[in-house]
Amino acid sequence: xxxxxxxxxxxxxxxxxxxxxPNLQKNLHLLSTEQIELAKILLETGQSHLFxxxxxxxxxxxEKKAFFDQVSRLNSSYPxxxxxxxxxxxxxLAESKAGKxxxxxxxxxxxxxxxxxxxxxxxxxxEESGVxxxxxxxxxxxxxxxxxxxxxxxxxxxxxxxxxxxxxxLQYYIESILALQDASSKLASGERQTRIPFVIMTSDDxxxxxxxxxxxxxxxxxxPSQVKLLKQEKVACLDDNDARLAVDSRNKYRIQxxxxxxxxxxxxxxxxxLLQVWHDAGLRWVLFFQDTNGLLFNAIxxxxxxxxxxxxxxxxxxxxxxxxEAIGGITRxxxxxxxxxxxxxxxxxxxxxxxxxxxxxxxxxxxTGYSPFPGNINQLILELGSYIEELTKTxxxxxxxxxxxxxxASKTSFKSSTRLECMMQDYPKTLPPSARVGFTVxxxxxxxxxxxxxxxGAAKVPKGNPYHSATSGEMLVYRANSLILRKAGxxxxxxxxxxxxxxxxxxxxxxTWKPKWAITFTDIKxxxxxxxxxxxxxTLVIKGRNVFINSLSLxxxxxxxxxxxxxxxxxxxxxxxxxxxxxxxxxxxxxPEELRTRGFGINKIEELEKNLFA
Length: 614
Ligand code: UGB
Known about the structure:
The protein has 614 residues and is an alpha/beta fold. It has three domains: 2-76; 96-447, Spore Coat Polysaccharide Biosynthesis Protein SpsA, Chain A (Alpha-Beta Complex); 455-610, UDP N-Acetylglucosamine Acyltransferase, domain 1 (3 Solenoid). Strand 19 and strand 20 (503-507) form a beta hairpin. The longest helix is centred in the first third of the chain and has 19 residues, at 169-187. It binds ligand UGB. Residues 142-145, 201, 203, 259-262, 290-291, 327-328, 344, 346, 376-378, 423, 425, 450, 452 line the site of ligand UGB. Belongs to the USP family. Keywords: Nucleotidyltransferase, Transferase. It is an enzyme of class 2 (transferase). One of its GO terms (molecular function) is UTP-monosaccharide-1-phosphate uridylyltransferase activity.
């Protein structure tokens, strides 16, 4: 032990630390062999400034050890360690300073993909094959982000998807996975009940609150052993173009850190060993999704069906995108040297790239009213075998980028520290040309209703573009459910136009159902019959699995919540005072935050409860 320490100390001596880090030299005897190795990495990568403020031995010694605990975490959580992080940072910062365009040499063009129309024969048949495949899938939710644009104090997955039932996003996701699990297991009769694995990527900002949400709600009905939380670590901040690590202004024995981005999910999955476990268990697909899309599972079965039918290694879900909408554009990039790939170009890069490559107007809508580049909604379906093969080569490292805000045109100093970032949708960037990379376009009303902007942010969205707010997120759930039931033959009244939290929205009847009632359009059609109507002011909540709606006329509120999934037939006329939507003031601090952010609450005046039908 002593000799290992001696040799580590010798190595440090050979770095001339007496000259470059005298304060470290004085404290060397406090450090373990491992800590001295880490110190060596820091000195070799030009980080001696980190020790400039170190006190004499005997002062702050615990803090010095804590400093190395942090360095050890930063080193082990990054593929290739800190030395690799700093090397990449120097390269990317030099490219950024030189104004190098990351798409240099590439020409963008509009790619072709699978385009689906809800409810038609091909949609139904993709849904059917998707449900079959679901028992061979694992789901991964990236939920490490704070949602700074939304400014919500809690974690985003705890926000209600809609307040009619108060179901939060995490509950909706879990119940949807469970519904798919049941439907898929039934199709594979004879085999034992499938348990679809569910991974949630958290961060220090979200981990404990996510765990608490799960535990205090009995995992929303999922077996706790099905759920695995993987926590991403933050990365070190950079102070200048030499990639000198930033000292935390609140504690001189800490390095400042910031989130690395959702791209971390790949290295975490790889290092967790889960991918191999899934592969050995016969799984074929990994589905990635984000924290607040209340329409996501309308699209999942059909999209998975597309992956299976087209044998895609990568399938990104997309929706028609309004020009300048804050979602990435799926683009074919062709290089002068012949390389070509279909990849997400992030929303802040698409317009400049188009302008630089022969589209003088940049990112604009065409005659369809949408940008020709489909919008990436960051729902990715990866084929597990090829995914493991690729990660075995890369270790899960994803191409990173850096986005420093320079003080002036000399680009020598930053307004504030920066860091490397990575995005999960950049995974295909390292794939060989033989990889089958495709995408599936769904109608936006069906598949995409994220909650990202607070009311002020939503007000700044260009007119006609989606608000991506809590208000629009909830209204789009009712709209989609109304349109789906219309397609299934129910006479759902037209919406009312309202301005809520400064946003012009359509208010449809508040229709919502548990995923176990129906997870595909075929399920819905099998549970609806006769001549039915639902008025605009109505609320319909379906909680049971075996609820059949037959010749129902609804003008008020109806909640169908059968005991033990008993079979219930709902028919006849229901009229009552109903549940009324009441606007609340966004700025009124006496109103709970969940309601203020969406700008309304629900006054439950009168409803008919299910047991009258049971
Ligand atoms: N997230 C993490 O888990 N860890 C992190 O470090 C950061 C985020 P945002 P943004 O919805 O359509 C993405 O902040 O900027 C999670 C795509 O890049 O909501 O809106 C976080 O919790 C863009 O191409 O992402 O952009 C959340 O679940 C477009 O597809 C998710 O990552 C856009 O989403 C996304 O984080 C979209």
